[in-house]
Amino acid sequence: MRASAVALPLLFLPTLALAQDRGVALNMGRGLDNGMSVGWTFKENWTLRPTLGAGYSQQTGFQASIGSTVLRSFGFGHRVYGYAGAGIYYGSANTGANSPFGGRGQNPANTGVNSLNNSLYQNPGNIAYVTAPLGLRARLYGNFEAFAEAAYQKTLSGQFGLNQTGQFSGNGGQRFGATFGVTMRLE
Question: Which of 5, 22, 45, 91 suits 72 as a labelling partner, its CA being 20 to 30 A distant?
């Protein structure tokens, strides 16, 4: 029932103007969703944004994720359009040196300042979550666009880290935040 409550408005969003042509775009963002993603507009105004990620840091160790978001675009004119979507993601992470869950170099008897620092780099382990983004894009020049996207995310299992760039509010089970970036349409 909840999935249909999110998906139904996507089907009926008004198409005020042509928002997106078919093609592929490369997104680069910073905020709640950091990094790069590829968007495939498979049908006029419908985009699939699959994600396959892997990374490593001293704080959290090895991390990998997979998921996808479906977006429905609606235009406000020739150069500006908005979008809304829904997606699901799964992530798996190893423990790192500063993780409170153990790992390389972790001292179980940590107290004081080191414990405080470790709590800032929580490694949530495995996590599955749903996301509901809402954004606005504007064509800058040629095939380049700028975007601002806000998203509500809720875990199905696991917990979010508490110190995420772009996060405005939330806790380990749900959060709200924003991502800003640029897009290059590869058409």
Answer: 91
How do residues 37-78 score in pLDDT, each as one tens digit? 888 888 888 999 998 877 777 766 777 889 999 999 998 777
Residue that the structure tokens 């959290």 belong to? 60
CB 71 within 8 A of CB 51: no
CA 159 → CA 56, 69, 89, 138, distances in Å? Answer: 19, 20, 13, 34
- Contact status, residue 64 vs residue 57, Cβ threshold 8 Å: no
Report the sign of the C-alpha dihedral through residues 176, 138, 19, 67, in that order: negative
DSSP 14: -
Tokens 């995310």 identify what position? 153
Q: What pTM does this model have?
A: 0.70
Find, among 178, 186, 179, the residue nearest to 144 by Cα.
Answer: 186
d(CA 48, CA 26): 12
- What's the CATH fold of domain 2-55+64-89+126-151+165-185? Lipocalin (2.40.128)
AA letter at 150 = A
